[in-house]
Design goal:
This protein has 92 residues and is an alpha+beta fold. It contains two helices and four strands; from the N terminus they run H-H-E-E-E-E. Strands 1-4 form a two-stranded antiparallel sheet. A two-stranded antiparallel ribbon has the order 2-3. The longest helix is centred in the N-terminal third of the chain and has 27 residues. It is elongated. The mean pLDDT is 90.
């Protein structure tokens, strides 16, 4: 979950970072700079965020045919993580 949050945070920040790095480079090379395009940067961030949600829906594995087995404490005090297992179909 933290990985997904960090990935989306990077995608939101990416247009701003690229703009400010380019603006700093332009100032050092003597190019004239206009105002910061806040609306365009926010829109680019929103588009990247939306695309990340779309890719998650398209490429995330489907577990509808499986049963969730919750985490459990095994002998020796170790915790076995939760997992999905195939549904058992009754024999005819």
């Amino acid at each position: 979950m933290l990985r997904v949050f960090l990935l989306r945070s990077v995608l939101i920040a990416l247009p701003f970072v690229v703009w400010f790095v380019w603006a700093e480079y332009a100032k050092r090379t003597g190019r004239p700079m206009g105002a910061t395009p806040w609306a365009w940067l926010a829109t680019a961030s929103a588009v990247l965020f939306g695309l990340s949600l779309l890719f998650m829906v398209v490429f995330q594995s489907d577990n509808r045919g499986e049963v969730y087995v919750p985490a459990e404490v095994t002998e020796g005090g170790r915790v076995a993580p939760g997992r999905f297992e195939e549904k058992e179909t009754p024999a005819p």
